[in-house]
Amino acid sequence: MILGQPSPCFVELDEAVAQLQAVRGDDRPVVFGWQLGEVPRGAIIFNLDLPGIHFGLGDMRAVADRACEVWDFSLRNVATWKAIGVSAKHVPVGYHPSMTRFERREPTVDVVFMGSMNERRHAVLQGLEGRGLSVVISPDDRAQRDELLAQCRCSLNCIFYPNGVYPMLRAAHLHANRIPFVGEVAPEHEQDVACPMWSSYDNLVDAIVDACETPLLDGFNIFSQRPMVLPT
């Protein structure tokens, strides 16, 4: 279950987790976006956000008292939970067949970006347009997003906050649907063993231009061998 207004990638992970929970007969709710609403007592929380940015340590202690378990996609976050006395379980984002939603088609646009916008990301997209590439920002609607991604040459996966961690959830959607992309080197980027091309922030524009000129392989074959596994 998702609290608040979910991003499309949250919905897809929620669907995958719900199917895995059903297969093993676990009826405990798994809550995404826990900081945005009332968490049912005895639920599992699956954290995909950043302590100190999206919520504080007091919020973490309070929700841990209500939850039966805490899962987190980030090892850095797990360490923060541990520092306040909470034994969170590291649950990497892996592949589930439900994440594969469409097939690629003949490209009609160079770059499609999905995600929230800020100055840091906007500067990269402006740089790409300045180099003559066509750039589209995908809408929140999942069907429209996927329609655009299916027709792009490549995408990019860069962090929102300079002190953030690598956006593995976005990478999972791109990998699962065979979209090549350039990933920004960031904390915990090593978890994405399927990323076809890495770049520092300062070199992202050059790297994406190169990726459009010399098409990258997508990461599906590697990513699909790393299934989503829920902790026992």
CATH superfamily heading of the largest domain: Response regulator
Low-confidence stretches: none
Any idea what the shape is?
globular
CATH third-tier fold name of the largest domain: Rossmann fold
**How many beta strands in the DSSP annotation?**
9
Task: Characterize the biggest β-sheet.
Answer: 5 strands, parallel
Strand content: 5-15%
N- to C-terminal separation? 19 Å
Return the structural class.
alpha/beta
* Total helical elements: 8
Radius of gyration: 18 Å
Strand and helix order = HEEHEHEEHEHEHEEHH
Helix content: 25-40%
**Average predicted confidence as pLDDT:** 93
CATH architecture of the largest domain: 3-Layer(aba) Sandwich
CATH class of the largest domain: Alpha Beta
Question: Could you give a quick summary of the protein structure above?
Answer:
The protein has helices at residues 8-23, 57-66, 75-83, 119-130, 142-149, 168-176, 204-213, 220-223, and strands spanning 30-31, 44-47, 69-72, 89-90, 109-113, 135-137, 152-157, 181-184, 197-199. Helices cover 34% and strands 14% of the residues. Helix 4 crosses helix 7.
